[in-house]
Amino acid sequence: MALNDRLRDALRDPNPVVRLEAARAAAGSGDHRLVEPLLEVALRDTAEVRVPSGLGETYEHVGDAAAVALGEILSRRSGIDTRVALAAEDLHCDDDRVATLLYYLGPRYEPLRQRLEHHEQPRLRLRAARAVLSINRTAAFAARLLDDPSPLVRLEGLQVPAHLRDDAAALRLMRIDPDPRVRAEAAMLLRFTATGVEPFAAAARTEPDPAVRTALVACLAHRRRDPQAVRAIAGLLGDPAAQVRRAAAEALRDATDPVAGAAIGLRVLAEPDDDVLGALLRYRSLLADAPELRPVIERLHRYANFDDDRRTLGALLAARHTETRPPRYTADGRFLRAVLRQAADALGSGTLADWLDDPGRPVPVGPPELDECVQAWTAMDVERALNAAENAAYAVALDDPAHAAPDPVRGPTTAARRALQLTRVAHTLTARLLAAGAEPPPAAPLQRLLLPGEDSIEALRSVLSVDECRRARNVTWLRLLMRPADEAWYLETLRAAHPTSPPREDGEVSEWHLNLAVTAAEGRRTTGYR
Predict the structure, then answer these.
(1) 210 exposed, middle or buried (CB, 10 Å; 0-12, 13-18, 19+)?
(2) Nearest 10 degrees: CA dihedral of 363, 364, 370, 373?
(3) For residues 19 and 9, what is the distance between their CA atoms, to the nearest angstrom?
(4) What SUPFAM superfamilies does the record point to (predicted)?
(5) pLDDT on residue 357
(6) CB-side exposure of 521: number of CA atoms within 13 Å?
(7) For residue 330, what pLDDT is reported?
(8) What letters, b where the CB count within 10 A reaches 16 and e where it falls short, cover 511-520?
(9) What count of other Cβ atoms lies within 10 Å of the Cβ of residue 216?
(10) 220 neighbors 197 (Cβ within 8 angstroms)
(11) d(Cα 131, Cα 159) in Å, to the nearest integer?
């Protein structure tokens, strides 16, 4: 059998090592009869073979070896081979394989590549673009690609050496290109340039695609020594997309601006995604910048399910507690609007939120909590707005059926009281952000008012004290704080003292009755109690 016949058969061998050796041998044969089998391998074969390389090993692509062989053979022939031209325009072929083939065919086939570059079919233009390595591209070539109607071709136009890249063109594409892939790539290419904060911050405020906003967070993160970058990232902590919120949290992990701590603290209260919450809690100065969160962190630490979470939360709790100056309320209505927007979000009232942004809209109508928010805004009364927001959070938490699952009475009561406390914390952090000249993240409902595994009585004790119940002379509340054994003792003692008609708990109670309930709630059972 002739050598070239053996090479032809070897190029079809199922073993990629054999095909690789055949492609290498074909390069030196110069036989144009091997063009077709080599073309088939160059366009279809994606196998890689591990081969020796110096003191180690590397991988060699069989299809690339065939393309090199084709370049060697066709370089000895004038003109453009019709079979190659047809293959270059065959849409059944892989675009990258055709581009690789054109690259290895070299300058002799540049007319074919140029013809494809101006073809009406976008995929053929993409092949022509990819056939030119980024290091070999000129500014004029890149400019042509950036003006192409196809987004994939425009993406190729962005891949040029840094000294040739047109940052102004990249900024334009980042802002206005219709394809999000192009906008994201343009942003990432500008990440390490001297471009300032504002172009990225402005783009992030209006960008509809979450992947592009994530890329913009990366650009802002590289500039986080600038306070404006920290504020822009903090504003994205409330982004609708979890991937953006997580990127923003990770970007602020090592920030030293107290604004970051206040914004992260505000978001910790309202973050529904566990992964994003984990990223937020890795901010090392959280309790230094937002010490009001310590009870929340202690509760999360106590009921953490994973070792990593316990370590993260434990490190936060070990940090030194620093005093912060009380925030000042802003006089321009921003604080008032932020408080009422938090109330609107708690109530799930989009109409109230829209009305706060545009009071020219029809006045929203709804439950008493919503009406109180409207009245507070109309009167521009900060204290009234604070009370309205607290009442809204309390009412929503109390009525949430999910809070009744662990305990139909203690669960909603605990959740409502925690919502009241955490709403006050949210207002404090909001005022702190506004006082620092930063906008708080978008409002969101409070999360994790009850944690899985929490003891319902202990949870209620964390927000309702025996002393408060004593001062209110409320035996019903004291009953909720009693352990089962203590409650049994309380009822038994009450029946022993009043065998025929036990005293009511919802009216005036005697001092003896109140003291008995307090003793049981505190777990100080004694025999012979009178």
Answers:
(1) middle
(2) -30
(3) 9
(4) ARM repeat (SSF48371)
(5) 86
(6) 24
(7) 59
(8) eebbebbbbb
(9) 30
(10) yes
(11) 12
| 66 touches 21 (CB < 8 A) | no
SS3 at position 50:
strand
Euclidean distance between CA atoms 216 and 183, whole angstroms: 10
- Residue 61 pairs with which residues in a beta bridge? 48
Residue carrying structure tokens 């005022």: 431
Helix (H, G, I), strand (E, B) or coil at 57: strand
What is the per-residue pLDDT across 422-478, written as a single tens digit (0 to 9) for each? 999 999 999 999 988 898 988 889 999 999 999 999 999 999 999 999 999 999 999
Burial of 27 (0-12, 13-18, 19+ CB in 10 A): middle
> What pLDDT score was predicted for residue 45?
94
Whether residue 216 contacts residue 207, with contact meaning beta carbons closer than 8 Å, is answered with yes
Beta carbons of 260 and 226 less than 8 angstroms apart: no
Q: How many residues does the chain have?
A: 530
**Site of tokens 């073979």:** 49
Contact 374, 423 (CB under 8 A): no
Distance CA 473, CA 161 (A): 78
Instruction: Return the number of other C-beta atoms located less than 10 Å from residue 169's C-beta.
Output: 17
Cα distance between residue 477 and residue 463, in whole Å: 12
State residue 350's pLDDT score: 83
Instruction: Answer yes or no: is pLDDT of 326 > 60.
Output: no
What is the share, in percent, of the chain residues with pLDDT greater than 90? 75
Task: State pLDDT tens for residues 281-309.
Answer: 999 899 999 999 999 999 999 999 888 88
Residue 405 has pLDDT above 60, yes or no: yes
Residue indicated by tokens 């009241």: 420
Tokens 């708990």, residue located: 505
As given in the structure block, the two tokens for residue 95 are 């675009």
Directed axis angle between helix 210-221 and helix 198-206, to 10°? Answer: 160
| Dihedral pair phi/psi, residue 48, rounded to 5° | -125, 140
Nearest CA among 288, 289, 204, 284 for reference residue 247: 204
Q: Please answer whether residues 151 and 181 qualify as being in contact, where contact means their C-beta atoms are separated by less than 8 angstroms.
A: yes
CA–CA dist 263, 370 (Å, integer):
26
Q: Are 252 and 225 in contact (CB under 8 A)?
A: no
